[in-house]
């Protein structure tokens, strides 16, 4: 596998952040907060190489709908 592309659909949810780690660096993609402040429904996306460790935090409320 070369990498991953995660597409996040505009559904109301809380939690479910995507945490990425690679070579001592860490990033967090919080689709709930990124998409909630937009004036119109929009999709979110993130791509990363296969050697990047990733973990999805639990969804606290609502539904996080993705296509990977």
From TrEMBL:
It comes from the Eukaryota. This is Prolyl 4-hydroxylase alpha subunit Fe(2+) 2OG dioxygenase domain-containing protein. It comes from Multifurca ochricompacta.
